[in-house]
Automatic annotation (TrEMBL):
Protein name per UniProt: NAD(P)H dehydrogenase (Quinone)
Organism: Planobispora rosea
InterPro entries to which the protein is assigned, alphabetical: Flavodoxin_fold, Flavoprotein-like_sf, NAD(P)H_dehydrogenase_qn
Pfam families (alphabetical): Flavodoxin_2
A GO term, aspect molecular function: NAD(P)H dehydrogenase (quinone) activity
Domain Flavodoxin-like fold residues, every copy: 1-215
Length: 259
């Protein structure tokens, strides 16, 4: 299995750094190929601007259209093209990051903003009366799997169904469904470590054992059963879920999961 790890933490000696290192060692020992995009070490540029698109940039700037034209003509900046090539190479993508202010760190969001260009991650496929583009289960990145490995400062109870921060699945839904599933990537249930700010060296052996177990079962783990956009579950072009498909009492983000 070819695995890309996209790692976003500024401190190599952090818990996130240790989890990234353990993932590399565990997967390589199991015979898998691994590449790492260490965004802080790479000094990754986190903002989209006209410089990303070279001669394909328009004035005024139109980010979607210009990014698609730059992708089509091969004029995206080398750093962006390199990350796109890694994604096309990968069969599994692991995102290792801390949950900051209820979402991914800015540098990782900037990686998505710059790398997931028009015609690469979105804006592909036929638009008709029966199909609304190739997205949400289809697209350029279909056939790949992804896993979020996330450290969270607060205790698990704060992220439960009635927890004050909201359910962790709801907080991660925009990443799982809106960023990863949108271009066709199958998304595995996340690996979440709660109370990360209180973790000590004595805790790490148990954490490492749990993380190794997840890593060695990536290929056999069932992905989250998100509904495919063009499978018939959604009316087109409204993209409303058809009445009666959801289990009784289900609402919110969970409507978009089949089981």
């Amino acid at each position: 299995m070819k695995t890309l790890i996209v790692y976003a933490h500024p401190e190599p000696r952090s818990l996130n750094g240790s989890l990234k290192d353990l993932a590399v060692a565990t997967l390589e020992k199991a015979g898998h190929e691994v590449r790492v995009s260490d965004l802080y070490a790479m000094r990754w540029k986190a903002v989209v601007d006209a410089g990303d698109f070279g001669p394909s940039a328009s004035s005024p700037l139109r980010v979607a259209a210009d990014s698609g034209r730059a992708f089509d003509t091969g004029t995206l900046t080398p750093d962006v093209r390199a990350e796109q090539e890694k994604l096309l190479w990968a069969e599994m993508i692991i995102f290792q990051f801390p949950l900051w202010w209820y979402t991914m760190p800015a540098i990782l969001k900037g990686w998505v903003d710059r790398v997931f260009t028009y015609h690469f991650a979105y804006g592909v496929g036929e638009h008709s009366d029966v199909k609304y583009g190739e997205r949400f289960g289809e697209g350029t990145l279909a056939g790949r799997r992804a896993l979020l490995s996330v450290t969270v400062g607060g205790p698990e109870s704060h992220y439960a169904e009635r927890g004050i921060n909201g359910p962790i699945d709801d907080l991660l839904f925009p990443i799982h469904h809106g960023i990863l599933y949108y271009p066709g990537i199958e998304v595995l249930p996340p690996f979440v470590l709660y109370g990360a700010d209180r973790t000590t060296g004595e805790d790490f052996p148990d954490i490492a054992k749990a993380w190794e177990q997840r890593l060695l079962t990536l290929e056999s783990t069932e992905p989250i059963a998100f509904r495919r956009q063009n499978s018939g579950d959604y009316e087109i072009p409204s993209l409303h879920l058809r009445e009666g498909l959801e289990p009784a009492g289900r609402s919110g983000f969970r409507l978009h999961v089949r089981t």
